[in-house]
Amino acid sequence: MVVEGLEFRIDRRSGVPAYQQIVQQTKQALRLGVLEPGDRLPTAKEVAETSAVNPNTTLKAYRELEREGLVEPRPGLGTFVRRSLARPQTGADSPLHGELEAWMARAREAGLEREDVAALVASAMEKQYGAMTEARSTGE
Amino acid sequence: MSDGTYAGGPALEAVGLGKRYRRGWALRDCSFRLPTGRICGLVGPNGAGKTTLLGIAAHVLEPTAGDLRIFGAGPGSAEAGRRTAFLAQEKPLFRRFTVAETLRLGRELNPGSWDQGAAEHIVRAGNVPLDARIGTLSGGQRTRVAFALAFGKRPDLLLLDEPMSDLDPLVRHELMGTLMAEAAEHGTTVLMSSHMLAELESVCDYLVVIASGGVRLAGDVDELREAHTLVTGVRDGEGTPRDLAHHTVVESRPSGRQYTALLRPDGPISGPWETDTPNLEELLLAYLRSSEAPPLITPSAQVPGQAHGIRAVAA
Questions:
Q1: What pTM, to 2 d.p., does this model score?
Q2: Can you give the pLDDT at residue A3?
Q3: Which of A36, A132, A135, B70 is 20–30 Å from B106 (CA)?
Q4: Residues with Cβ within 8 Å of residue B167, at least 6 apart in sequence
Q5: What's the CA gap between A103 and B190, in Å, rounded?
Q6: What pLDDT digit, counting tens, does each position of B285-309 carry?
Q7: Domain ranges of chain B
Q8: A27: buried, middle or exposed (CB in 10 Å: 19+, 13-18, 0-12)?
Q9: Residue B3: exposed, middle, or buried by beta-carbon count in 10 A (0-12, 13-18, 19+)?
């Protein structure tokens, strides 16, 4: 299906190149489930009409998304979403979800309050992801 | 419009182009290449020769020096004439003609290549009545009819001189959208002069900056931006800080203890400096303010024999 209302918002004053803003906004739509596999992205002409964005900029963004395996062009039809960035591992029936629920139950039995659990999770998260986030941001 | 479209000859090439009037040079030493399929902003201070350059490309003016080619042909050739459309700043239209008559004139002046559907679509999208006389239209509507006339010709190269200067923001956004959509559909190469720097940011993927001394910047917008770094920090004395001295300083602005500069880095930047990629406006202003900074012409914009590579210019 064609996604109605997917409009790119280009911040002309920002230092981020316009094509990267389109890449980021598309990824965000994939994460939030606004875009799903099989959806067609707006054509360069449609983006040009609604947002007055240079078609080469849109095509450059789509090529970047294609390189990352997120979308694929189908000649004569448009550019389509190949895979979502919404993760099945986070669904309610996933093993990770089950383990976390069991852990929460044990924490409650042990007498921990809501804030205690939140602090524990935050500190474990910091330990696992803190360093990684840093490495990623300097790598860009 | 894949990468492949950029291959082949350039849409426009100027080599040592100049134009002298009795009062002096209006354009001087202008050399660059515009690859096919690009949407290029032409920027420069008043009197730098933007209109003169567009006039030579449109064969309204003859150059005094140098040469200009459109798809390899001279501007006066039938080939170049057929493939080029020019929209002058004053958008000359016959005031007593109706919109329909104006389009009919376009059809008769361009036998064989006129696209009535495209021209009417552009006019209709702006709710301009076909039976209205040009003289009764608003500035925005008149610009729209001029656009329709230019696009109806189905040009491969569209030359626009300050196309949006007299329009309100809403009409400007709408017409830019029309322009971008038409270019998307037909792969038209566009060269347009503009004073509105912020507007160029999302619209142009290519840029040519000219000043009295010749071309200052030319090339792909992202490439040009990424070749520069904006540094900010505390300075330790007069002049260029020592750890920045081996980079090309385009413009520096000391204010009190703070030092801000736009650099063309030659290698990584060391020292306690905050760095950022400049936006298009910052880049343009820096080059327009500092006339002694060496020009930067990226490889895709260079004419044969020209050597203003990103790394070729030493500080």
A1: 0.79
A2: 52
A3: B70
A4: B139, B140, B143, B175
A5: 62
A6: 899 888 888 899 999 999 987 765 4
A7: 12-220, 222-293
A8: middle
A9: exposed
Q: How far is B179 from chain A (nearest CA, A)?
A: 8
pLDDT per position as a tens digit, B100-119: 999 999 999 888 889 999 89
A56 with B225: Cβ contact below 8 A = no
Residue B26 distance to chain A (closest CA, Å): 31
- pLDDT band of residue A76 (cuts 50, 70, 90) is confident
CA-CA distance, B20 to B271, in Å (whole number)?
A: 48
Alpha-carbon gap, residue B58 to B42, rounded angstroms: 15
Residues (pLDDT < 70) of chain B are 1-8, 307-315
What is the value of ipTM here, to two decimals? 0.71
Instruction: Give the tokens for residue A75.
Output: 């000649």
Q: Which fold has domain B12-220?
A: Rossmann fold (3.40.50)
Pairing relationship of beta strands B296-297 and B65-70 according to DSSP bridges:
unpaired
pLDDT at position A91 over 70: no
Tokens of B123: 């006019």
Outline where chain A has alpha helix (H): 18-32, 44-51, 55-67, 95-109, 114-139
d(Cα A55, Cα B264) in Å, to the nearest integer? 28
Q: How far apart are CA A59 and CA A42, in angstroms?
A: 11
Q: Please give the residue of chain A at the shortest CA–CA distance from B226.
A: A17
Amino acid at B187: G
Q: Do A15 and B180 touch (CB under 8 A)?
A: no
Is the Cβ pair B279, A15 closer than 8 Å?
yes
Token pair of B52, please?
């003169």
The helix (H) or strand (E) run that includes residue B258 is strand B258-264
Q: d(Cα B213, Cα B192) in Å, to the nearest integer?
A: 20
